[in-house]
Design a protein that fits this description.
The strands form three sheets. This protein has a nine-stranded mixed sheet with strand order 4-14-13-12-11-10-7-6-5. A three-stranded antiparallel sheet has the order 1-2-3, with helices on one face. By secondary structure, the protein is of the alpha/beta class. Helix 12 runs parallel beside helix 13. The longest helix has 22 residues. The protein has 13 helices and 14 strands. 40% of the residues lie in helices and 16% in strands. Bound molecules: 2-phosphoglycolic acid and zinc ion.
């Protein structure tokens, strides 16, 4: 495939922040990809945009795109992104993509992949799935990921003072089909909303950046409320749901201790040492039958992750800020036996080649992979395609909101395409 045009422009994400969208043109058809942005950004993520600013990132893509077109650079396979990255390295040799920015590279690569798929009259997920290099044994019936839904939240995703310390209270329905999980997440969200109206007197209907319910209740009361939601869902639909949390503990870490501001209903403030945090989280998981805990310790504490994982053998201990979708961080996590689950956010790495390597390495070590949106999202649906094309078992992309539906509804459509004979 040879591109006939590749240009970038500025758009606003769900938080009304500026970000980059890249349009690629091939055989008279146009595709677009855009990049999201985070708030609870990991220290080891690449830089989002050029240190010279977003405008520079955009003019870089425009000049670079013209060069790719003029020099008739061909892309045929996923691995051909190597050509692009070798080219990019001439301009940006920094480890954290200081010169062009990770969002720039991600949007550029996603747009090229979408163009490649459309040039073959394929969908992106089928193109990725049929890529011989990466899927030598062609799957006859690919699986859809399970949606891990953010139902209630706080932390850095909420501006108001009165909020939960944990960033996300997540729901994972035990269903076979994506459609059913999507439906149950939505119903659980509705139940949680009406219970909050009743029990959370200070809640004024505020939502988090990811459209989860921004409760003012303390962490443990939220977990108790979710158990009620679980019962209601069981009674109405005869379907069970399990729970997880994203503690995003780097935001709680104050250098020597973890500081809580909404610990329990009677004791708002609480300070924990590392060892106390590990015991607290282990007990919290046991008491509330949690199946998944993301970033329970701060982003440099590989040893703490390992201790917690040893304490909680049947729970997924997941790295997000810890690992930042970077190969060397994952290698370190594997060496220190820190995690058995991994958040994958392609724009934390910028490179889709590195993202794929990270997923492959995690899978090789039996680490559960979860592809994830960011809190500041766009209408882009690339991660839905990556989830199916790369057979990633879970996707974390919210429960409601247009930017979240862009991914969820794409997965519903893909499920229909796969299931209709
Ligand atoms: P972010 O956080 O997108 O705001 O960085 C999401 C998460 O921590 O999972
Ligand atoms: Zn996280």
């Amino acid at each position: 495939m040879q591109l006939s045009r590749l240009i970038a422009h500025k758009i606003l994400n769900s938080r009304k922040e500026e970000t980059i969208a890249v349009i690629a043109e091939v055989k008279g058809k146009r595709v677009e990809a855009s990049a999201p942005s985070g708030t609870s950004v990991g220290k080891h993520e690449v830089r989002a945009f050029s240190s010279r600013g977003l405008d520079f990132s955009i003019s870089f893509v425009n000049a670079f795109g013209k060069k790719l077109v003029d020099e008739k650079i061909k892309f045929e396979t996923f691995d051909d992104l190597k050509k692009l990255e070798t080219f990019i390295k001439k301009y940006d040799q920094t480890k954290n993509l200081e010169f062009i920015g990770g969002n720039t590279l991600y949007a550029l690569e996603a747009a090229i992949l979408k163009a490649l798929a459309i040039s073959r009259e394929q969908e992106l997920w089928t193109f990725l799935l049929e890529d011989k290099e990466h899927n030598p044994s062609k799957l006859s019936k690919p699986s859809l990921p399970k949606p891990l839904g953010n139902c209630i939240g706080g932390g850095l995703h909420v501006k108001q003072q009165n909020k939960t310390d944990f960033q996300e209270f997540l729901i994972l329905p035990k269903t076979k089909y994506f459609f059913d999980s999507y439906f149950i997440n939505m119903q659980a969200y509705k139940e949680a909303k009406s219970l909050l109206k009743e029990k959370d007197k200070e809640w004024q209907g505020t939502l988090t950046d990811e459209n989860a319910l921004a409760s003012t209740l303390d962490n443990e009361s939220v977990l108790a409320l979710l158990q009620e939601v679980r019962q209601k869902i069981k009674d109405k639909f005869d379907i069970d749901i399990s729970f997880g949390i994203d503690m995003a503990a780097t935001a709680l870490w104050k250098g020597r201790t973890y500081k809580y501001k909404n610990y329990t209903s009677t004791k708002k403030e609480k300070t924990f040492t590392k060892e106390e945090q590990i015991s607290y989280v282990s007990e919290l998981a046991r008491k509330n039958s949690l199946v998944y805990i993301e970033d329970p310790l701060h982003e440099e504490d590989f040893d703490g992750f390992n201790k917690l994982k040893t304490n909680t053998p049947n729970i997924f201990i997941c790295g997000d800020d810890l690992t930042c979708t970077k190969l060397e961080r994952l290698e370190r996590a594997i060496k220190s036996k820190a995690i058995n689950a991994l958040i994958v956010k392609p724009n934390q790495a910028g490179s889709l080649l590195e993202t794929k390597e990270v997923i492959d390495l995690a899978k090789k070590h039996d680490i559960l992979t979860i592809i994830s949106h960011r809190s500041g999202e766009t209408y882009d649906n690339t991660i839905a395609h990556l989830a199916v094309g790369w057979q990633i078992p879970l996707i974390k992309t919210g429960i409601i909101g247009k930017e979240r539906f862009a991914k969820l509804h794409e997965l519903l459509r893909i499920e229909r395409m796969i299931s209709i004979k």
